[in-house]
Design brief:
This protein is of the alpha+beta class. It has a domain of 67 residues. Helices cover 20% and strands 41% of the residues. It has two helices and seven strands. Strands 1, 2, 3, 4, 5, 6 and 7 form a seven-stranded mixed β-sheet that branches. The longest helix is centred in the middle third of the chain and has 16 residues. It is elongated, with a radius of gyration of 17 Å. The relative contact order is 0.23.
């Protein structure tokens, strides 16, 4: 489901305030560089649930958005902006499948007990979301 991941990343790249970028999976900034806020996207292990409706299949897919920022306020602002963007998301993907909705599962913010190398406090702001993806079943 690469078109789904691609669309989610495109939407995240529209957010301002992430000079360190948007990354899938794991991202470790260079330790000697000054701190830059960034976002890591962590996909679920595949569809949580699938419902076959005959000519279409509806899949429930999860993504955890992990914002690493130098302030709680910045993290909260980014989580809120992304939530507003994702909660009413309905779009056709490049492979013809569709995202037909989504909902927030959880959000939280934590102060990393370790500071960045230059002394900057690092906040982890999390937003967990689940999306309904409609796939057209192609007859064999």
């Amino acid at each position: 489901m690469n078109s789904f991941r691609k669309k989610i990343k495109e939407l995240c790249l529209e957010l301002s305030g992430l000079p360190g970028g948007v990354h899938w999976g794991l991202y470790l900034p260079r330790s000697e560089a000054p701190w830059q806020d960034y976002l890591v996207l962590v996909p679920g292990e595949g569809p949580i649930e699938t419902e076959d409706t005959g000519d279409t299949t509806i899949e429930l897919r999860s993504i955890r958005f992990q914002f690493y920022t130098s302030s709680l306020k910045t993290g909260g602002t980014l989580v809120e902006a992304l939530y507003k963007k994702m909660r009413k998301l309905e779009t056709i993907l490049s492979d013809g499948n569709r995202i037909i909705g989504g909902y927030k599962v959880d959000d939280t913010a934590l102060l990393d007990p370790n500071r960045w190398y230059d002394g900057t406090e690092v906040w982890l702001s999390l937003l967990s979301f689940e999306f309904f993806v409609q796939r057209t079943v192609v007859p064999v």
